[in-house]
Amino acid sequence: MKNYYNSHDVKRLLNLNSLRTAQLRVKTMNDDLKAMGYWVERGKVPIKFFHEKYPYVELPEKESKYLSSAI
Predict the structure, then answer these.
(1) Residue 47 and residue 3 in contact, taking contact as beta carbons nearer than 8 Å
(2) Any idea which of 1-10, 45-54, 56-65 has the lowest mean pLDDT?
(3) CA of 29: how far to CAs of 19, 32, 35, 62, 64, in Å?
(4) How far apart are CA 60 and CA 52, in angstroms?
(5) DSSP states along 6-63
(6) What pLDDT, on the 0 to 100 scale, is given for residue 32?
(7) Degrees, nearest 5: CA angle 44-5-13
(8) Does residue 47 contact residue 70 with C-beta atoms inside 8 Å?
(9) Which residues pair with 6 in a beta bridge?
(10) What is the value of pTM for the model shown?
């Protein structure tokens, strides 16, 4: 079961051309989490938080089945 997206996943999900742009998006989301008092995993963002920030991006099939059972 996967709990985090890395920058390669974010690049693929957002159809970005640059890995650096995906890394910056992950860093920004981690900065938001850190400001809310959470511990962050550098270079990774929790799947649930990613989809709160980008609700229009659909969950891949295998992640959606795990997240819906955890909610």
Answers:
(1) yes
(2) 56-65
(3) 15, 5, 10, 23, 20
(4) 15
(5) EHHHHHHHTT-S-HHHHHHHHHHHHHHHHHTT----TTEEEHHHHHHH-TTSPPPHHH
(6) 97
(7) 130
(8) no
(9) 44
(10) 0.81
Tokens of residue 20, six digits: 């650096």
Which residue in this structure is represented by tokens 């891949």? 60
Classify residue 8 as exposed, middle or buried by CB count within 10 Å of its CB (0-12, 13-18, 19+).
exposed
The CA distance from 47 to 50, in Å, is 5
**Residue pLDDT, tens place only, 5-30:** 999 999 999 999 999 999 999 999 99
pLDDT digits (tens, 9 = 90+) for 33-52: 999 999 999 999 999 999 99
Q: Which amino acid is at 54?
A: Y
In Å, the largest CA–CA distance within the chain is 33
- Are 44 and 5 within 8 A, CB to CB? yes
